Amino acid sequence: MNATRTLATTARVLRQLRHDPRSIAMMLFVPAVMLVLLYWVFDGKEQQFNSTGASLLGIFPLITMFLVTSIATLRERTSGTLERLLAMPLGKADFIAGYALAFAILAIVQAALATGLAVWALDMSVAGSPWLLLVVALLDALLGTALGLFVSAFATSEFQAVQFMPLVVLPQLLLCGLFAARDTMQPVLEAISNVLPMSYAVDAMNEVLRHTDVTGTFIRDCAIVAGVALLVLALGAATLRRRTA
């Protein structure tokens, strides 16, 4: 992997996104809008908003980054851009890393907006530092980016890319502990939830919600989410194809 080529890819992706305001709006503002909607749903029920909102503060960025990244990467292949790029000295790892870095920059802004809105505008009360919420939200957004880059290799159209969401995201959403504590699930479902990264993202948010200090569980959960994101990025580079079959 070459740093110069990676940064050049990052700059190219950011220039392209600058001319796509709808994608930028989806990445930056949809999680914040969803949090506001949730705040209104739990109008006057502060404890329920704190509990559910903290979990969704990590889940919303993951979902939006997954959708935008998978579709944007697929467009590179279907338009022939990827084939032309890989005919140059640019390697697959440079392409994946450049894309990941570009979306990581947007993920930082997205996570900062959503976290700031939740804590300072919607009065989400957490025992730990709000900066820890930002860390988890950012890691979740990066995980969504990595998953989107990975599944785009297996889609042949934008419609197929969207179809991966029920397969990749929804099972994690159901089993992450948002709707029921994971230790109360059937043993098979609990075992599955224990290998899904979103479960650890929700656990990390709950650690910030309940504990004033950084706990060992919080560090473990963040490390797992970050590790899975890096692993998926590596798999994305390995499975990247030049063109859509």
From TrEMBL:
Pfam families: ABC2_membrane. Belongs to the ABC-2 integral membrane protein family. This is Transport permease protein. It comes from the Bacteria. PROSITE patterns: ABC_TM2. It is a multi-pass membrane protein. One of its GO terms (cellular component) is ATP-binding cassette (ABC) transporter complex. GO terms for molecular function: ABC-type transporter activity. It comes from Streptomyces coryli. GO terms for biological process: response to antibiotic. The chain crosses the membrane at residues 24-42, 54-74, 95-119, 131-154, 161-181, 218-240. Its main location: membrane. Residues 22-243 form the ABC transmembrane type-2 domain. It is found in: Cell membrane. Keywords: Antibiotic resistance, Cell membrane, Membrane, Transmembrane, Transmembrane helix, Transport.
